[in-house]
Amino acid sequence: MINQVIELAERPDGQPSENNFRIKEIETPTTKDGEVLVQSKYISVDPYMRGRMRDEKSYMPPFEVNAPIQGGVVAEILESKSDNWREGDLVEGILSWQRIQTVRPELLRKVSPQVQPSSLALSTLGMTGLTAYFGLMDIGQPQKGETVVVSGAAGAVGGVVVQIAKIQGCRVVAIAGSDEKTTYLENELGADVALNYKTTTDMSEALKTACPEGVDVYFDNVGGEISDAVIPLINKFARIVLCGQIALYNETSIPHGPRVAPLLVKRSALMKGFIVTDYQNQIKEGVTALSGWYQQGLLKHQETVVEGFEKLPQAFLRLFTGEKLGKLVVQVN
Ligand SMILES: NC(=O)c1ccc[n+]([C@@H]2O[C@H](COP(=O)([O-])OP(=O)(O)OC[C@H]3O[C@@H](n4cnc5c(N)ncnc54)[C@H](OP(=O)(O)O)[C@@H]3O)[C@@H](O)[C@H]2O)c1
């Protein structure tokens, strides 16, 4: 069997490129007692992985140079030398960017055959859906009739946030980077207004018009100048959910923005960051809520599927150009 791995060849300086990755052929490992041999089916590319390319302490250790990139993978068990895990089972976990690998099953979760397509376990019913659910429901605490602004709204997390906020009865203002995305957000996901930040000349004015009663919840996936335009519009007791800051991930030094602390004081507002794994013990609650909405047709799933293991680096780079809709996954064939 052909086996291949993708490694980090060198750490990016600024915008990452394909040169930062190396694909190579390797031997397929032998399964030891207690292990399973798995074949990757879908591999997730996620913005947080950019942080792991830096040699910097964070909530996950940095990738090693000349070692495999790791991320969310849905895989099929080819061989099991562990009780309770059977050949043919689909599993999900943080694995290497590798076609076939051995793994200790404690690091895996089973993917129910009812999860169709199984890539949903990486997106709407998996990590990105749970990020949207816990960030919005626990920190954002959206109340019926409130205004929720979502940046990065046509992405994996943002698209789910928009829909959950609508389920909660909120007015939703969505921000994304193309007309195709804003049309999708208004026509398919039910956003009340969607703004294209790349073509809107004055975001502050556009947001004022879109949020006539101010902003109660800001779910921030992006940061930078988009947040600079949203935050001055917050209402008393507003909640700012800091989910991600992708606009800054490729910066070599963090640019200074407006100081928001005085406004947070004046508005008695909350600004809180989180990592989805903070909610590790509540995963069942999140999956139950998301699956329920999905089955009722209240939560739509949107994926951009790139075919081919060797396309992983290119797919990863598309997160920073925005050339995709919804969750970006690579199907390994
Ligand atoms: N806290 C957590 O536990 C957690 C978990 C998962 C994800 N996150 C964060 O949540 C955010 C969204 O993640 P995701 O998986 O849903 O990714 P995604 O939104 O599916 O993909 C990234 C999107 O970000 C937008 N973008 C890229 N560069 C930008 C820039 N300079 N300015 C504005 N927008 C830019 C692009 O869309 P446009 O076309 O709209 O520009 C792109 O499609 C990321 O910041 C990620 O790090 C956090």
UniProtKB/TrEMBL annotation:
Signal peptide as annotated in the record: none
SMART domains linked to this entry: PKS_ER
Residue span, Enoyl reductase (ER) domain: 17-330
GO terms of molecular function: oxidoreductase activity, acting on the CH-CH group of donors, NAD or NADP as acceptor
Keyword terms of this UniProt record: Oxidoreductase
Keyword NAD recorded: no
InterPro entries attached to this UniProt entry: ADH-like_C, ADH_N_2, ER, GroES-like_sf, MDR_fam, NAD(P)-bd_dom_sf
Keyword Oxidoreductase: yes
Record Pfam families: ADH_N_2, ADH_zinc_N
Protein's name in the database: NADP-dependent oxidoreductase
